[in-house]
Amino acid sequence: MSSTSQKHKEFVAEPMGEKLVNALAGIGEVLGKRLEEKGFDKAYVVLGQFLVPKKDEELFRDWLKDTCGANVKQQGDCYGCLREWCDSFL
Prior knowledge:
Elements: H1 6-12, H2 29-37, H3 43-51, H4 57-68, H5 72-89
Helix pairs in contact: 1-5, 4-5
């Protein structure tokens, strides 16, 4: 298993609250802007897109790629971040 980034560790360490979308692992300034432009401005809005297909990794990755152009690594980082957050808080 790959190691997690500091950003990932910080995100999964506490409740999501009103964190911005770019607080998610794998989502930097560019992808965050693209997501915001499509109405996904907060991390919890992206969480909704993660939960709708029942946490299905392939469907979430496809959605992220289609919505903001995330590459394979970014997709995996974001998926892993949300999966771990859900395991801790849901």
